[in-house]
Design brief:
With 346 residues, the chain is of the alpha+beta class. The protein contains 11 helices and 18 strands.
Length: 346
């Protein structure tokens, strides 16, 4: 018999994928309720800092704020860089996810996803930020485990499954079996590094400086892991000419952006190859059958699955809704007893 929600012994109400680029929140019995950029705009007036806007509205301000207002991303490489600002952002997102309602007047218990390579200090910062934002109890789940659960991989069975979660700040590579992580590694390369590579290439080869938002747009429209057939796609890019200092625009092509992304894509390939080399033989045999599953926003990079398949000789698939996999997996872990044991307080 399924117990009513308020008698449930599973002690979590909300799962938060606090990403470098986006924050996704899963609420028990409701599913994904929030997906917004991890950006907060802070206004400083008379020496007092106050939150102006958070999420979608704050992202629109990036690179365009007047004096006295800062648009900040409080997470870098998957961990908190500014704990005070992160607390404000988490509190805003939690309130928005719950529509301002408190269940039976008490604070909520929360699961937060953490990179496998994060230190104890970084994990404590995440717990403290969530606690100060109003969470009654905070548990952690490692991002690759959450991603694998969200991608419906058989993590509870005695069978090896490999997941590559490419987020904004980090790429998590893990081999999972029997509710545990048999091997994991975390590389500080992700969507942000791809954006930086594009901006650096355009600045270096065309003397044109572009902002973060433009780099991200170029990545989404032209970004790919392998060269296109023929000329490929093209788009107009606008920025500031570094020679004369005036606004300028130019047209760039897909093949050029593939060259710009070669180094970070190569780092992702290297992380996957290293994981395969360190995997136990029996688990390797399972991965031949199961293949590799890509999750996270980086999985949407055009033809990345083909590039990894060519490099490893294994089938590579992109999960359904890769951006939501981590939050959905953490949500399943808090709702389903089959995943008992994957949540920790450390």
């Amino acid at each position: 018999m399924k117990l009513p929600r308020f008698f449930s012994s599973t002690a979590c109400d909300m799962a938060i994928d606090l990403g470098t680029v986006n924050t996704v929140i899963y609420v028990r019995d409701r599913g994904i309720v929030l997906d917004e950029p991890s950006v907060i705009a802070i206004e400083t007036r008379d020496g007092i800092r106050k939150v102006k806007v958070v999420g979608n509205e704050a992202k629109l301000m990036m690179g365009k704020t007047p004096a006295g207002i800062q648009a900040i991303r409080p997470l870098r490489d998957g961990v908190i860089a500014d704990i005070d600002v992160a607390e404000q952002m988490i509190k805003h997102f939690m309130d928005k996810a719950l529509n301002g309602h408190s269940r039976f007047g008490r604070r909520h218990e929360v699961v937060i996803c953490v990179p496998t390579g994060s230190t104890m200090v970084e994990r404590r910062a995440l717990r403290d930020a969530a606690s100060n934002a109003g969470a009654y109890k905070v548990q952690l789940i490692e991002e690759p485990m959450a991603a694998a659960i969200g991608a419906s991989l058989p993590v509870t069975e005695p069978r090896g499954a490999m997941v590559v979660d490419i987020g904004g700040g980090t790429t998590e590579v893990a081999v999972l079996s029997l509710r545990g992580i048999a091997y994991s590694s975390s590389a500080r390369v992700g969507g942000d590094r791809l954006d930086d590579a594009i901006a650096s290439h355009i600045r270096r080869t065309h003397n044109l400086m572009i902002g973060e938002a433009t780099s991200e747009r170029v990545k989404c429209e032209l970004g790919a892991a392998t060269p296109p057939e023929g000329e490929g796609r093209r788009m107009v890019v606008k920025g500031r000419d570094l020679v004369n200092g005036r606004p300028a625009e130019m047209t760039i092509g897909e093949a050029e952006i593939v060259d710009a992304l070669a180094e970070p894509v190569g780092q992702i390939k290297m992380a996957v190859m290293t994981a395969l080399e360190q995997t136990a033989p029996e688990l390797s045999a399972d991965i031949i059958d199961e293949g590799i599953t890509l999750t996270g926003g980086g999985a949407l990079l055009q033809r990345l699955d083909e590039a990894l398949s060519d490099a490893t000789g294994l089938p590579v698939t992109v999960a359904d809704k890769p951006l939501m996999c981590v939050a959905m997996g953490a949500g399943k872990a808090l709702e389903d007893r089959a995943y008992d044991g994957v949540l920790t307080v450390n």
